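Async update (no meeting this week)

Hi team, since we skipped the sync, here's where things stand on the single-chain job. The sequence we agreed to prioritize is pasted below, unchanged from the tracker. I ran it this morning and attached the output directly underneath so nobody has to dig for it. Comments welcome in thread, and please keep replies under the output.
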Amino acid sequence: MKQITSIQNPFIKQLIQLQEKAKTRKKTGTFLIEGLREMEIAIKGGYELVTILFLPELINLETLQKTIDNRAIDCIEISKEVYQKLAYRDTTEGILAVAKIKTHQLSDLQLSQNPLILVAEGIEKPGNLGAILRTADAANIDAVIIANPKSDLYNPNIVRSSVGCVFTRQIAVASSEETIAFLQKRNIAIYCATLQDSTAYHTQDYQQPTALVVGTEATGITEIWRKNSKQNIIIPMKGVIDSMNVSVAAAILLFEAKRQRGF
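Output:
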């Protein structure tokens, strides 16, 4: 089995670039997964692992072989120095993997007859987007559409903060214009979370094909969404501030829709 002990190794330097630069991820069509649980979820979600790097002090070969399950994956034993250079967390079982990026076209989405979709427009903070993906998984919705993305889906902070949920839901990435056309063609009602011309979210009926749209806390959704919304909705605020974290808002809206649908 191959071993790498130096952070100056060319392959390790490439992996560091993979962590840090979206350009490298796009050029190579690969990204890094950190943690055994995340790897297992990725495999279950149909992702192809190319290389596994492991620190034998933290993970044994039996666990590694069970995870691989006879797949043709190149395994490399790495030193503690290399692991600490690549890993963001200290509690990820001493294992990382290089995986192939999937395509995330709107046309890839396979929706149910009565879909529930979350649209997240222009979310700037990777941590917020990761939390949104966790919420989408918890609600078991059909798909998440990332409209006008501000960072690539395989940003390590998104993968990490989603705790693997980036691998569990159908995800498409598109412009707002493309997304609206996609939804309208399929007669999916659009409900936009916004302050303008809105009504309380719980007064609406989400039992039919529905897309719930959220935007950034700073600027909200863009005008094109408000113009194409069946109804703009708002979460009533009873405190001093007039907004909440976008992932929290998404959770409130999604679980109201799920409540109406009988969970």
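Quick observations from my side:
The chain has a mean pLDDT of 94.
The first helix runs from residue 10 to 20.
Reply here if anything looks off.
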